[in-house]
Amino acid sequence: MKRVLSGIQPSGQLHLGNYFGMMSRMIHYQEENDLFAFIVNYHALTSIQNREILRENTFSAACDFLALGLDPEKSTFWIQGDVPQVTELTWLLSNVVNVGLLQRSTSYKDKIAQGVAPNMGLFSYPILMAADILLFGSEKVPVGKDQKQHLEMAQDMATRFNNTFGDVFVVPEPDIDKETQLVPGIDGQKMSKSYGNTIPVFCNEKTLKKKVMSIVTDSTPIDEPKSTDSPIFQIYSLFLDKKEKKELTNRFKTPGLKYGDVKKEIFNRIWTHFEPFRNKRNYLTNHSDYVKNILKEGAQKASAVGDDYLSRAREAMGLNY
Ligand code: ADP
Ligand code: TRP
Question: What predicted TM-score, i.e. pTM, was given to this entire model?
């Protein structure tokens, strides 16, 4: 039984990239692993500086995770800011991480290029993420490809700490799935909240239809075979098993396929796939006390594990006298 941990920022509407890249795999892992899942509201402060929005997004992200199948009986589920020990560990790790490593962060460089203010929170984002992972002895971290460099930094910090102060931390392994590591958005770029190109998991029928209908396609004439190396094929494939994917490949290779028909099928597939989850989510959003109670209990469980690793790190560094 492995400790599997991952988190998601409450920075906007959950989309298919988040779901297939991380969340559905986490939910699957909870059956045979010790799953730790959390909503990273400290990290979200790097992009959201509005009290109401952060509060609403945080609660909403918690409802998403629970609605999609995270089972609090099997897993530990909490809000990052309810276990503030992680900020102390961030400081401890700040003393083993090289500034050059942080300066090479592609995610930091991208954000700055997008015009985000280069504050210290944004710069030290990877240290807080490493603390998230190391505080709980995580062995495996399911994420999408965009988080690979952050995971390498966490490995670097764990190794440097252990080499300097003695073995305290588990060196985590990223868990990136080839099939779902980079879900394309409706414009063909990586699907991301910050690019405005997402297909949300939970939205109304009209919005979903509009989004799916606007997936980019090429101008191959109807009577020619179509490319399977395209966002429309890749997005549809997320919902298909092996046999269905083969059938879709054949349809793409056979002249006559109309993109408009395929889009209608994709819409129906997505809408029905999430139907039961939508109902559960409606229930949860109307029962906030129930949700908050789960999160409170999760924070207590996470705190107990975190306290143990933190006190060992403090001891190893000579902070206890
Ligand atoms: P976003 O880029 O939309 O802000 P987050 O940074 O909140 O997404 O990502 C949450 C999780 O979802 C991470 O594990 C991330 O790697 C994964 N993820 C995000 N976008 C994609 C994508 N397009 N394909 C696969 N995984 C993704
Ligand atoms: N940086 C991750 C993202 O944007 C979120 C995150 C924060 C995370 N702490 C984590 C993911 C720890 C895995 C483990 O998606």
Answer: 0.96
